[in-house]
Design goal:
8 helices; DHBP synthase; 268 residues; alpha/beta; globular
Length: 268
């Protein structure tokens, strides 16, 4: 477990997500209330992480939980991941393969480039379909449901199942991906830019001559899938900065803007 933190350069106060093969396995490591059960039925397997009271501290150790009394648990959607989890027979912590604070890899080549030297084995499941990390929701006893990290399962989709979500507040520490500077390339990131300044690379959204376009048709799903790969590609050109066009805030745009604010060094 300590080797994961070392390979990523990840602070030990930042908890890891325990991935399991199915809902039954999740119930063995976490105490899932009716809200959690409803979300699991709606969105698992898939990109939703539920933070709940830990049931079995032996199954998900204190270091993986960053010393908290909760565990972040998810059933991944990729069949290769679930096959590995089924073969293993227990929970596996599985952070993104980036070095801490860097843009997440969304291709096998980028993952190997980032932290591949620390891996004993590597499995190639193809490019990430979603492109963003999972949505994280805290569901704790006698507390409202809190959105700790937006993702491709949107606020509106979750609220349609369990009702209103409140903001992270005191539970923010229970989720990964909450650092003020996170997902950041080497070049500075400037968000909500209408056009690039001299020396900058422009990540466009909509019609543009820029070779780095999140979505020429202003499709938020496409933009989310391409975000980290284009940040990495733009960064390889060694620009003075990366300017990013405004992204609408609704739906999946909430998650995209969260990642961009953190890449730019703002707390979202």
């Amino acid at each position: 477990m300590a080797a994961v933190y070392t390979a990523k350069g990840r602070p030990s106060f930042n908890p890891l997500i325990a991935h399991v093969a199915d809902l039954e396995a999740a119930r063995r490591v976490a105490v899932l209330d009716d809200r959690a059960e409803a979300l699991a039925a709606a969105f698992w397997p898939g990109p939703l992480t539920i933070v709940a009271p830990v049931r079995d501290t032996a199954a998900v150790c204190d270091l993986a939980r960053a010393g908290l009394d909760t565990v972040a648990v998810r059933v991944p959607g990729h069949p290769l991941s679930r096959a590995l989890l089924t073969a293993f027979g227990g929970p596996l912590v599985a952070p993104s393969a980036n070095r801490s604070g860097r843009p997440s890899p969304t291709t096998f080549a980028d993952a190997v480039e980032e932290t591949g030297s620390a891996a004993a084995e590597a499995l190639d499941g193809g490019p990430c379909r979603v492109g963003l990390e999972s949505t994280v929701v805290a569901l704790l006893p006698d507390a409202p449901a809190r959105l700790l990290r937006p993702g491709s399962v949107t606020r509106a989709q979750i609220e349609a199942v369990i009702g209103p979500l409140t903001e992270a507040e005191a539970d923010a520490r229970r989720s990964p991906g909450r650092l003020a500077l996170h997902y950041a390339p080497d070049a500075p990131v400037r968000i909500n830019a209408d056009a690039p300044r001299p020396g900058e690379v422009f990540l466009a959204f909509g019609p543009s001559d820029s070779p780095f376009n999140l979505s020429p048709t202003e499709d938020l799903v496409e933009a989310a899938a391409r975000l980290f790969a284009l940040l990495r590609a733009a960064d390889r050109t060694k620009p003075s900065a990366i300017a990013v066009a405004p992204i609408p805030a609704e739906g999946l745009g909430e998650a995209i803007n969260d990642r961009l604010k953190r890449a730019a060094g703002y707390v979202g």
